[in-house]
Amino acid sequence: MIRAFDVAYFMISVDTLEDNTAFAKKESADFPILADPTQETARKYGVLGDFSKYGLGILANRWTFYIGTDGKILYIDKSVKPGSAGEDTSARLKELKVPAAKQ
Description:
Blueprint: E1 11-13, H1 17-27, E2 33-35, H2 40-44, E3 48-50, E4 58-60, E5 64-67, E6 73-77, H3 85-95
């Protein structure tokens, strides 16, 4: 569904490159998955959350950033649901009037 739009998309995780590669293979991901094991980028985007009350420590939240061609953030979805992320992202791209992919 996301491919119907003229966008570049990727996922970034605070996991290691090896973990991300294994995840990509397991899930048959057909998009780039970037590794941020130092959490430097996650800190800059403000996505780190304290999950220590659940015994998990500091983790990155699942957020989707919609960034315009000018580099400005158009929208941040802070309620990403993995099961419907494709549909939700597609709907948001329509709302943001992102053009269709060139055929």
